[in-house]
Amino acid sequence: MKNYRKLRKTLLGLGFDCDDGRKRITLGDNFRLYGGSKTTHETMKEKAVRFNELLKKHGKTLDEVSVEEVYDIAHKIGLKPVNEKKEDRNGGAQRN
Q1: Residue spans per domain, the chain
Q2: What is the pTM of this model?
Q3: Which residue has the higher pLDDT, 81 or 48?
Q4: What confidence score (pLDDT) does residue 3 get?
């Protein structure tokens, strides 16, 4: 019998501005944060925790929200989309 791991959605934060040689890694509910300067890493942690707080406020988990809801929550906490056209990965439909 094969052992399959349940796939879960995860927020991924990557910081590329580390200049002190430190390796910063933070793992939490629904998120994984890697790298960055001390300031960048702290900012990523604050945003990830705030994101999870808003998920709980809505009574949902990351696995239960739609792409649109992720964008809305991200916007509320000040995150900007990587793709400025705001295309989703489920067919490229543009958000309004």
Answers
A1: 11-76
A2: 0.75
A3: 48
A4: 64
